[in-house]
Amino acid sequence: MGGIGIWQLIIVLVIVLLLFGTKRLRNLGGDLGGAIKGFKGAMKEGEEKKGTDEHKSVANDDVDKDDTNK
Fold first, then answer.
1. What's the rounded Cα separation, in Å, for the pair 14 and 29?
2. What's the CA gap between 28 and 14, in Å, rounded?
3. How far apart, in whole angstroms, are the C-alpha atoms of residue 37 and residue 45?
4. What is the mean pLDDT of residues 6-16?
């Protein structure tokens, strides 16, 4: 009971090409690439926002401490 070999992968690829055609697969690849790019951008944007929110929180804590000491 071995795994999938190279010949099985080639046969599956040929069948997929026959069923969907190269144009549809090219569009699918472009859509998938765009989705991944958008996801990475959203993750980066979320990390930047999280970092600025944490910085603001620390700054507000410092201001609150100064007000209580007066």
1. 16
2. 16
3. 12
4. 91
Q: What does the block give as tokens for 47?
A: 């990390």
Q: What is the 3-state secondary structure (H, E, C) of the chain?
A: CCCCCHHHHHHHHHHHHHHHHHHHHHHHHHHHHHHHHHHHHHHHHHHHHHHHHHHHHHHHHHHHHHHHCC
Q: What is the pLDDT of residues 28-52, one digit of tens each?
A: 889 999 999 999 999 998 888 777 7
Query: First vs last Cα of the chain: how many Å apart?
Result: 77
pLDDT of the residue at 23 = 85
